[in-house]
Amino acid sequence: MMPLKPLLSAQFLSFMVSASGIFTESLATDCGINIPTFQTFLVYTLLSLFTLKLHKRQYVNDPSIDSKPYRICSLLGSTPNSLKLSSPWYYYLLISFLDVESNFLVVTSFKMTSLTSISLIDCTSIPFVMFFSKLLLSRSYIPPQYLAALISVLGILLIILSDTFYPLTSSTGTTSPSPLLGDIICLCGAFLYALNNVLCEKFVKVDRYEYLGMMGFFASIISAAQMVVLEREEVEKLFVEEGRCSSWRSGGLIGGYVVSIASFYVLVTGFLVDNSAALLNVSLLTADVYSLIFVVIAEKVVPGWLYFLGTLVVFWGVGLFNYHEKSQEGGREEGEGIGESDKSDLLRSRSPSREPIIEP
C-alpha cells in the first residue's frame, strides 16, 4: 500500500512553492517590482530567529548540547555564551550562499521568461539531485525510481508542449522579454537548488533547528549585502514612489511570498528528516500544475488537452517514486534491524556444531 503521509506532506510543500511563485510573478508582471533579494532577506530574517531556540537549549542545560563539538560566537557577543554546534559554522555559510543565490536566480527569472520555462527548474533539478545524493550521501536508487522520475519529467514536458501549441494568453497581453536568458538562469538555479537540497537533507537529520537558525543567520547577512549592491534603488522606490500597484497590494504580495516560503523552509526540514531530497524534488514537480490551475482560474482560460494529460502523468510519476522510495527504505530498515546478537545466532545456526564460531 502506498504511504499517504509523505505523499500528502510533499504535496502541501509543493502548494506552498506554487503560492510563492504566484506572488512573485504577480509582483513582477502586474506591479513591475523585481526585488528578489529583498524578498528572501525578509524570509531569512524570520528564520534566523531559530538561533534564539539554540540559545534557550543551552541555558536550560539540554544534555544533547554537551556532545556538540563546534562553537560559534554568540549573537550576545560574550565567549561563555558562544553557541555549540553539531557542524562547523563555515558549512552553514556555504549552504546559506547556495540558498541565497538559487533563490535570487529563480525569482529573477520570473521577469524574463514564462511560467512554463521556469518549469525547467523542476525538470532539471531531478537528475542533479539524484547525482548529488549518490555523490555526497552514497544513496542508491533502483530502476523503478529512475523510471518514476523520468515519467514525472515527461509529464512536465507535456505541459510545456501544451503551452507551446495551446498558449494561455494573459489578459494583460504581456510577453516574456528575454526567454533564452531566463531559461539559462533557470538551469543555473536548478543546479544550485539540487546541491542545496542534498546538503539540507544531510544537515537536518543532525539538528533541523540548528540548520534553520544558522542558515537564516548567515543568509540574512549575505542577502542584505547583496540587496545594498543590486537592489538599493528598487527598494527605495518601493517605500517612496507609488507604482503600478497600490502599496497595499504590493505589500500583500510581498507578505504572501514571505509567509509561504518561510513556512516551506520550516516544514521541509521536518520532511527531509524522514525522507530524501530526491523524493522532495520529484514531488515538487506538481507545483507547476497548481500554478497553471491558478492561471486558468484567474485568467479564465482553458488549456489544451496536453495539459490535462501531462498533469495525470506528473501525479502518476510522483506517486510511483514515493511508493518505491518507501519500499526501499523499508527493506533497508529490515536489514538494519538485525542486531549483532541476531547475526551471531544466525551464524551459529548455519555453522557445524563441532567447529568453533569465530566472530569479528
UniProtKB/TrEMBL annotation:
Name the segments for region: Disordered: 327-360
Q: How does it sit in the membrane?
A: Multi-pass membrane protein
Q: Tell me which UniProt keywords the record has, alphabetically.
A: Membrane, Signal, Transmembrane, Transmembrane helix, Transport
Predominant subcellular localization, coarse grouping: membrane
Subcellular location(s) of the protein: Membrane
Q: Where are the transmembrane segments?
A: 35-52, 146-168, 180-199, 211-230, 250-272, 279-298, 304-323
Task: Provide the GO MF annotations for this entry.
Answer: transmembrane transporter activity
Q: Name the PANTHER family for this protein.
A: DUF914-RELATED (PTHR14233), SOLUTE CARRIER FAMILY 35 MEMBER F2 (PTHR14233:SF4)
Protein name, entry field: Uncharacterized protein
Organism from which the protein derives: Triparma strigata
